[in-house]
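Posting for a labmate who doesn't have an account.
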Amino acid sequence: MADTIFSKILAGEIPADIVWSDEFCIAFRDINPQAPAHLLVIPRKAIVSLADASDDDTALLGHLMRVCAKVAEQEKIADAGFRVVANTRTDGGQDVPHLHFHVLGGRAMKWPPG
């Protein structure tokens, strides 16, 4: 996988406002928030997108979803509700080729999303 802004954050080369860190992933505040609360949850493992994850990544994907819920609790947006989004590849709106989940909350979400 190519160097990305996320791989540089994981390597400590670029600062981030990290709100969660464990052996499998980190979560940090998005620098261009689309909601009052906007966090990104990224695996430490280099996976390009959700479509590129393998069956071997099933446990990691479950862990990432649990971390999304935990950071929503931490940010006090869980009770009112939040949205988790994984943009995948070009037509899905993925800008950074490193799997990441957006956790958005702090306001009512609209449907359809885009």
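Reply:
Got it, the structure tokens are right above this. The radius of gyration is 14 Å.
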